[in-house]
Amino acid sequence: MSETEIVAELNEQFGSGNKELEADVVADLRSIMRLHQLSVEDLFFKWESYCIKMDIDAAQTALETLRHFKQDLHDTLERNSRSHVKIKTEKGISSTPRAPRVSGGDVFGMLDSLTTPGPGRASKVAPKRTPAVSRVKAEPASSPVKLADQLDATANAGETVEILNDQLPAPEPPIAPFSESRIKLTAASDQKKLAYKPLALKVSESSEILDDRIDDFVSLVMQHHKLEESAFGSAASQSTSEIVAVGRIASDSSEGKLNAASLLLETSRRMGGGLRVPLNVSRLRGYQFFPGQIVALKGVNSNGHEFTVHQILDLPLLPNAASTPDSLGAHIQRLRGGPDAMDSDSDPAPLNVIFASGPYTADDNLDFEPLKALCNEAADIYVDALVLTGPFIDMEHPLIASGDFDLPEEYLSSIDPDTATMSTVFKYLISPSLNRLASANPSITILLIPSVRDVLDKHVSWPQDAFPRKELGLPKAAKVIGNPMTLSMNEIVLGISSQDVLFELRHEELIGGRPQEPRLLERACRYLVEQRHYFPLFPPTDRKKLPKTGRGDGVGPGAVLDVGYLKLGEMVNVRPDVLVVPSSLPPFAKMMNRLLRVCWLSTRGIFPRGKERGRMQR
């Protein structure tokens, strides 16, 4: 890549709107790239992580901030190098020398002790192979600096790195499992509708789905802002009168990133004949857009060529979830252990839920050690629920993709090689850990949410039906649900999707001026809530621009949207109390809109009696 092309890519990633970077800023960025041998994309990932950690706006690339960023990279690399030496010294265990891995492995040898045997468990002496950090973070495995930057988040298994609502005391785990399940599950989404035939709709039917979404928001905006129907109009029609136009954000090019010059508003056939009109946002103090976003804009099209935006109207949010006093009383009684509980007047023990996301094994093996460690932890503290999002058997795993792997020898006697399928792999490699957990904690509830990267699921598109549990050998406590799914755990409304929409929103969004929400992760999550959808981005990001996978050319399957059934990806009736969205972006847990807690990756949530109080840690 030539110097001109690199500078152009730097301006695309780090620039704000149409404003190019200053020469000093470009020089500093090029210096960091050469020093750490980073591509522009890798550098931007690190810059975003730094901005999130320091709570600063990623779009403001000031020279002084860049120099602090450069020093932080140097300090992180130096700190991790010292930590590596210390851990190796403390172990003092010699092992058989082996050739270093070229990429994607445990380069620094810091992940050897992923699990710690619990009480009564025998400890294995044999060395354990652990997930490559590039796999954990869903990023390319070619950069050793990137691996070093992620060591802090992966080296110390079980370490608490963040607590939400840390003013609340952490409850002690029970000394024995509860006699019966303390969770009542109620599905808000209609799971039967997810069993549609994928990729079977006509283009005309898909376009009607997209049109209906715009028209639905017209009614919502009209009611929320108490506007007359005459206040709405077509942004594509020339007029000197100010109108409210509702439509979908689009780009005038199928290639490249959305920018102020390529910004279009797509109207519905009912409101504007399905026409697209350029947007002039020069009068706005700040804006935040992404392709597929439904917006309500107040402005005028005086020349017939572009719609000049004067104001962006707020979209109404879904109402908060609420429970009747009788329902709350029943949930509290269930938490106490049922109507026959000995101490029916005392405060019940808080509900304890563990969330985790796949993949659950390393790139170079199918041992599923992280899953075993997770199940051991859930058994030790007697959690009420374990929520696992896929992929479980990842189609992008190098061994799965090549088919070059063997099942453990102890299972070979009971398996017919001629009839073995991926269900067999799941049954003998994943189900045993879940069965041991269910035996140690009979009252647990286990939820499995598939991913479009799951080789086990024949439903290849999103929204995605649950994979059949027949022949998987799952315990009765395990339930397989759809992707996405809105459901209630007692009085808590939980929204879950295994699709990595946050990374794609971050990649595709356009920020100008002073946006309403300057912080990246909070802004990406707010998009989901405001758009009332688990994947509001349309069209999805090009697969080649997504984080690299561990096999072949590194290009994953992408979002795999079935446009005709996108309505099944909408949030149902109310805002979730907890929104769980796994992503390759840095994990976090935050309060949004008072009651919404957003979290992703390996996150454990502990909820007390009411939705107004809760403690999360990861």
From TrEMBL:
Its main location: nucleus. PANTHER family: DNA POLYMERASE 2 ALPHA 70 KDA SUBUNIT, DNA POLYMERASE ALPHA SUBUNIT B. Belongs to the DNA polymerase alpha subunit B family. This is DNA polymerase alpha subunit B. GO terms for molecular function: DNA binding. One of its GO terms (biological process) is DNA replication initiation. It is found in: Nucleus. GO terms for cellular component: alpha DNA polymerase:primase complex. Residues 353-590 form the DNA polymerase alpha/delta/epsilon subunit B domain. InterPro entries: DNA_pol_a/d/e_bsu (IPR007185), DNA_pol_alpha_bsu (IPR016722), OB_DPOA2 (IPR054300). Keywords: DNA replication, Nucleus. Accessory subunit of the DNA polymerase alpha complex (also known as the alpha DNA polymerase-primase complex) which plays an essential role in the initiation of DNA synthesis. Residues 207-315 form the DNA polymerase alpha subunit B OB domain. The keyword Iron does not apply. Pfam families: DNA_pol_E_B, OB_DPOA2.
